[in-house]
């Protein structure tokens, strides 16, 4: 362990030696945040609102993250992002991270599950969302590499079932727009779908099989938090998601009271 420990100590000394006092209100730094677009859609607007009021000079770059290959366990699928964080390719990663190595700090922002999204309420699956119709439908899958196999296929295989993936696309935004204009169906993050369903005139239904819930976590190298600016942004990101969650709860309560 001597070599990795020495490397961490060297990096820590470098951070400390180059550190300057951080003033969010005056800073003009730019940070890179990596996340699947189905996740960044949840935190982006509340994060920008906080930055606008507290740190108007700070810029954010979003980097699209997806597992490099399908057919892997969730524990292994996101492993490459840790190397990218340590290499400085991004400052913070936000993804369904099950476990982070001890040299990282990972904070749970929210829990997410998936729903099935279709273009209209009269779609055969929407009208009768059974497992049989789910398997008979033509599916869209979000895949960075074009690999059609994912965690939904693993769940189907456990029941002796399969589906036809007629199309793969590289991000959730393109996937949702494509579903809105076709007869394809897709399993997508519930919060992401809820944010865009009305605008795109799509509807969602519960997935007719048991799928796991994902914990969406923000991760940074532990040593990187010695950077006061990055530590500040890490905290603001957490605050943004907590604020969005509270606002969403109020909207639900208001809608319920109006019924």
Give the SSE layout.
Blueprint: H1 2-18, E1 30-35, H2 37-54, E2 59-64, H3 74-77, H4 80-86, E3 92-95, E4 104-112, E5 114-118, H5 124-127, H6 131-136, E6 138-142, H7 151-158, E7 164-169, H8 172-180, E8 186-189, H9 190-200, E9 203-206, E10 214-221, H10 228-258
Parallel strand pairs: 1-2, 1-3, 6-7
Antiparallel strand pairs: 3-10, 4-10, 5-8, 5-9
Q: What proportion of the residues is helical, as a percent range? A: 40-55%
CATH architectural group of the largest domain: 3-Layer(aba) Sandwich
Summarize the main sheet. 5 strands, mixed
* Residue-averaged pLDDT: 88
Order of helices and strands: HEHEHHEEEHHEHEHEHEEH
- Write down the overall geometry: elongated
**CATH H-level superfamily of the largest domain:** Periplasmic binding protein-like II
Overall tally of domains? 2
Distance between the termini: 61 Å
Structural class: alpha/beta
What's the total helix number?
10
Strand residue content: 15-25%
Integer-rounded radius of gyration: 20 Å
Record field, number of beta strands: 10
Quick summary:
This protein is α/β, with parallel strands linked by helices and about 260 residues long. The protein has helices at about 1-20, 35-55, 75, 80-85, 125, 130-135, 150-160, 170-180, 190-200, 230-259, and strands at about 30-35, 60-65, 90-95, 105-110, 115-120, 140, 165-170, 185-190, 205, 215-220.
Q: Characteristics of this structure?
A:
259 residues, alpha/beta, 2 domains, D-Maltodextrin-Binding Protein, domain 2, 10 strands
């Amino acid at each position: 362990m001597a070599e990795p420990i020495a490397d961490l100590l060297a990096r820590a000394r470098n951070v400390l030696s180059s550190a300057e006092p951080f003033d969010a209100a005056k800073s003009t730094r730019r940070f890179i945040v990596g996340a699947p677009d189905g996740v960044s859609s949840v935190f982006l607007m509340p994060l920008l609102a906080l930055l606008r009021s507290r740190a108007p000079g700070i810029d954010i770059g979003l980097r699209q993250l997806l597992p490099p290959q399908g057919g892997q366990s969730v524990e292994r699928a996101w492993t490459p992002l840790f190397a990218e964080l340590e290499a400085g390719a991004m400052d913070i990663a936000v993804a369904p991270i099950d476990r982070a190595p001890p040299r990282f700090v990972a904070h749970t922002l929210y829990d997410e599950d998936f729903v099935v999204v279709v273009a209209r309420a009269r779609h055969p699956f929407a009208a009768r969302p059974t497992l049989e119709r789910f398997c008979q439908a033509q599916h869209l899958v979000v895949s960075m590499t074009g690999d059609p196999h994912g965690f939904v296929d693993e769940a189907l295989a456990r029941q002796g079932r399969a589906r036809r993936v007629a199309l793969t696309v590289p991000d959730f935004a393109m996937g949702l727009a494509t579903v809105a204009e076709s007869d394809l169906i897709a399993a997508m993050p519930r919060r992401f779908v809820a944010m865009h369903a009305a605008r795109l005139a799509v509807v969602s239904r519960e997935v007719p099989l048991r799928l796991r819930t994902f914990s969406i976590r923000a991760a940074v190298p532990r040593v990187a938090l010695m950077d006061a600016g990055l530590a500040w942004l890490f905290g603001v990101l957490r605050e943004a998601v907590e604020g969005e969650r509270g606002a969403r709860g109020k909207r639900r309560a208001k809608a319920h009271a109006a019924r």
